[in-house]
Amino acid sequence: MNEEEALSGYRILWMQVLFDLPVTTKKARKQATEFRNFLLDQGFDMTQYSVYQRVCSGKEMVKTMLRRVEANLPDEGKVHVLIITDKQYENIHTFRGKNRGGKNKNPSQLTLF
């Protein structure tokens, strides 16, 4: 496999974890915080309060990360995992208030591996 194929926008995947976790009890707040900290420890970045994402170098990495997320789910709440290609990610439009945000930046190659 040549370098161009290895870094193809169709092989590189973005994994987004979106969640709605209860925080009505001390135990639930603790579990929600632990889950967010777990995501950060796994290399996810917070894009919104309950939306975290990270880049994955391929399907095998996505499978590994899915298993880790599943193993660390809180007792209650709803968690969605969305996986999109880098090519699809290029089409995300970001707005901050009435101002249009800049294009989403892909991480540097060192970040990928």
Q: What tags apply to this protein structure?
A:
single chain, 113 residues, alpha+beta, Alpha-Beta Plaits, 4-stranded antiparallel beta sheet, two-stranded antiparallel sheet, 5 helices, 27% strand
How far apart the termini lie comes to: 16 Å
Largest sheet: 4 strands, antiparallel
What helical percentage do the residues reach? 25-40%
Q: What form results from the Cα inertia axes?
A: globular
Instruction: Quote the beta fraction.
Output: 25-35%
What is Rg? 16 Å
Please identify the structural class as seen in this structure: alpha+beta
Order of helices and strands: HEHEEHEHEEH
Describe this structure in words.
The protein is α+β, with helices and mostly antiparallel strands. It has a domain at 11-88: 2-Layer Sandwich (Alpha-Beta Plaits), CATH 3.30.70. The chain has 5 helices and 6 strands, in the order αβαββαβαββα. The chain has helices at residues 3-6, 26-41, 59-71, 86-89, 109-112, and strands at residues 13-20, 45-48, 51-56, 78-85, 95-96, 99-100. Strands 2-3-1-4 form a 4-stranded antiparallel β-sheet. The longest helix is centred in the N-terminal third of the chain and has 16 residues, at 26-41. It is globular, with a radius of gyration of 16 Å. The model has no long low-confidence stretch (mean pLDDT 87).
Describe what is shown at a glance.
This protein is of the alpha+beta class and 113 residues long. It has helices at 3-6, 26-41, 59-71, 86-89, 109-112, and strands at 13-20, 45-48, 51-56, 78-85, 95-96, 99-100.
